[in-house]
Predict the 3D structure of the following.
Amino acid sequence: MIIVMRKGASAEALAEVKKKIVKLGYQPHVIHGEIRNVVGAVGDERGKEKLQIIASLPGVERVVPILKPYKLASREVQPQPSTVEIVPGLEIGGNEFIVAAGPCAVENQQQICETAVAVKQAGARLLRGGAFKPRTSPYSFQGMEEDGLKLLAEARELTGLPIVTEVVNPRDVELVAKYADVMQVGARNTQNFALLKILGQLDKPILLKRGMATTIQEFLMSAEYILAEGNRRVILCERGIRTFENATRNTLDISAVPVLKQQTHLPVLIDPSHSTGHASLVAPMCYAAAAAGADGLIVEVHPCPEEASSDGPQSLRPDDFQRMMDKLRAFAAVAEREMAD
Ligand code: PEP
Ligand code: MN
């Protein structure tokens, strides 16, 4: 249920509403609006009608059901877009079109540091790089694990770029959180609810990728798992879905951007690398993402893609990335977004 407070309702009235929600066995989530506050009361769907009683409390304007199965992620609960702070002075979902870039996997110090310097120079605001890799084959390179995280931290030290890196296994959450600024949930873990619940308890932004066979509703239910645990800093990422088409690695569902924008207040990024699988297709999809209203991109860049230990064919060389970024500015401007110099 959504409890809509009256304009100018007192802090005491809000506190009473929260107390009553808890007493009825639900969790209150307050969304502070410019004009009025609303409180989402979430919990067991059975018996939620008993929350109607709250309508009679002082300062309450009305109590309305949340129609979507995802609650805290919905625009019903929060009509205005969320901005997710990554580090002070850097947020996703605001006016700036944000680009995260870097290799699929961290391979060695020179590779990650050289890439970090190059992507920063081109205007990227975050550095990506996997230290735990969810590979299709158990015989493929699985990532450098903690050594990789340490190299990411070194690259952050060198460039000032915050790090986004994937956590694959719930038992590694604590370790990855020690180094990461943003924790990535990969497409293979979108519905790993045990992992999502743990990440919901962290005080850190989560980049949640869409699974290759998850509907938008299922994707938002996964976000809801994180939000329901109390972590509001969720960023969604469309990275392509499985279809019959095999000219591309996956099919980029670009319409997911406006659909998500209608249904959720959470920011949305596009991953043009895993969705296309080919470096030559990455730039057009970056422009499409900006034009469609995405909040940013996460792009794979490698100093020498032919030697990459994973995802070389879809990785941009630093000079191609620079050219893409230069052209991207015009698309971002048309979408009324700024980009850093
Ligand atoms: C990645 O970002 O390197 C990755 C494995 O992505 P996805 O989970 O989208 O396949
Ligand atoms: Mn990859």
In short: Residues 155 and 329 are 25 Å apart (CA to CA). The first strand starts at residue 2 and ends at 5.
